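Hi support team,

I'm filing this because I wasn't sure whether my run with pyridoxal-5'-phosphate finished correctly. The job status page said complete, but I'd like someone to confirm that the output block is well-formed before I use it downstream. Pasting the exact inputs I used:
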Amino acid sequence: MIKKLRIMTPGPTPVPVDVLLEGAKETLYHRNPRFKKMLTSASEGLKKVFKTRGQVFILASSGTGAMETAVANTVSPGDKVITVVGGKFGERWAELCKAYGANMHKIDVEWGDYLRADQIEKALKENPDIKVVFTTLSETSTGVVNDIKAVAEIVKKTKAILVVDAVSGLIAEPLEMDEWGVDIAIAGSQKAFMMPPGLAFVAVNGEKAWKRIEESKSPRYYFDLRAYRDKYTDTPYTGAVNLVYQLNKSLEMIESETLEKVWERHAIFANAMRKGIQALGLELFAKKPGNVLTAVKVPNDIDGLEFLKVCREEYGMVFSGGQAKLKGKIFRVSNLGYVDKLDMISAIVTIEMAMKKMGKDVLIGSGVKAVEESLLEADEK
Ligand SMILES: *Cc1c(COP(=O)(O)O)cnc(C)c1O
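And here is everything the job wrote out:
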């Protein structure tokens, strides 16, 4: 039986052929003027997707490298910081801050729930010496999106800087760095950029962030943002040349669709999937679901890991499971990046068929009907 591979995971995401082909081009010397031009154009394009006039640095690492960069450059041992832990990626901020010896004020949010801006307000009021607030735009492990605009509104009135993990959120969810007052935001290539893994991005917006970076006493070398700033838009170390070609192609594709339309597409698709899931009688996991992915509770009478295996082995459809304490309890259907309407239809149909195969009493066609109707309705607007 032929099975086509369909990746509907929130990273790596599907890569369009045009982007793949860029990677097959001749590798230039990284000091070649032609490559330097490509770096400059990538840096300009990145500013547009981060919505900042600040500099955006390109690192050869996965997204976690950009997270470590943010921590190493802003946190000195003993510094008081806030981390928001409402899932696996918020937890990663906390682990990084611990590794760098921060004096951490942890805001625990139940996994699946979202951060309330007044939790940040209260913590900052009680701890006026907080230096950095670490948050997550789209908490990929739970499917929740946080209201970063409201958080920025509060943090910008204080001495603290706001760092946002937008690794899965950037390009999929609105983020207006300059307008909202986000000081540092990070992203990664294998998410909404529709690229293979391997690049991470760190956007630094303004003097408040740079002052913090200058003051940090933490040891850093490869990830020292001052080295990237001094060489900008050139790269201090060997650039990931072919990935930069791919980045330029991806940015070109996003610009031609327009960032606003890309945000809208993610909203339409995520909304359609939520409708489909609920029409099937399944339950959403996130209390405030974002537009990157849909996290679904695994019904009690179904083995969550077996379900993923059936989707993968019978249909070639790859969904993500739950991470850490959510393992086996949820599955996650991503619509991040290079995903189209028929991918959404394939995804819901796979869920229906796999559930049926596993003995779950679902009404075949009920999910796909809701997804189709939702997509058609969006077309009419
Ligand atoms: C994917 C992701 C990361 C980075 O993970 P890597 O595996 O290091 O690329 C960080 N934060 C969020 C929210 C993510 O979705």
